[in-house]
Amino acid sequence: MSDDNVISFPKDKMLTPPQNAKELAESVKEFKVGHADQIAEQLWEYVLHEMIRAGVIFEKDTMKSFPSMVLILESIKSLHLLSVGIHHPLQDFANDSIDVEEFEKELGIVVDTSEYEE
Q1: Which residues constitute the domain of residue 70?
Q2: Is-contact 86 29, C-beta < 8 A?
Q3: Could you tell me if residue 27 is inside a domain?
Q4: Number of domains, the chain
Q5: Is position 42 within any domain?
Q6: Predicted structure pTM score
Q7: Is residue 10 part of a domain?
Q8: 8 CB-near residues (< 8 Å, 6+ apart)
C-alpha cells in the first residue's frame, strides 16, 4: 500500500494480437512449436505404452532407459518441426549420422530422396 492509501496492483501485459509481420511470424512459430510439443508428447507416450505392452520392462531401472526415452520424444518433435519448416538441433545430428545408402542396403529398400534435394 502506498502513502495515499491506494493499493498498487501488478501491471500484467495484456495479450494483444501481433502488430506487424515480424510479430505475426513469431506468433505462428510459437504456435507450431507448441503444437509439435503436444503431438510429440502424445505419440511418445503411445510408443512407450506399446513397448510395455510388447513386454519391455522399464521399471527395473528407469533412469538407465530415460535418455533413450527422451531421444524418442525429441526425434518425434524434430520430425514434426521439420515437416513445418522449423529447425530442431536433432535434424543436424540425423543428417550427419544417417547414411541413407547404407540404410537402404541394410533394409533392402530404396529410399527416394529426390524431392528433398536442393
Answers
A1: 21-108
A2: yes
A3: yes
A4: 1
A5: yes
A6: 0.72
A7: no
A8: 1, 2
Short-list 10, 8, 29, 27, CA closest to 18: 27
Residue 113 contacts by C-beta under 8 Å, 6 or more apart in sequence? 100
pLDDT tens digits for range 73-102 = 999 999 999 999 999 999 999 999 988 888
For residue 85, the 8-state DSSP code is T
> Residue 14 to residues 18, 21, 24, 31: CA-CA distances in angstroms?
12, 19, 16, 18
What are the per-10-residue average pLDDT scores of the chain (118 residues)? 69 79 93 96 97 88 89 97 96 90 78 61
- At residue 8, φ and ψ (nearest 5 deg) are -90, 120
**Residue 26 maps to a domain:** yes
CA–CA separation, 104 and 110 (whole Å) = 6
DSSP label of 14: P
How far is it, in rounded angstroms, from Cα 91 to Cα 95?
Answer: 6
The x, y and z cell numbers of residue 73, run together, are: 520424444
What is the rounded CA–CA span in Å between residue 114 and residue 87? 20
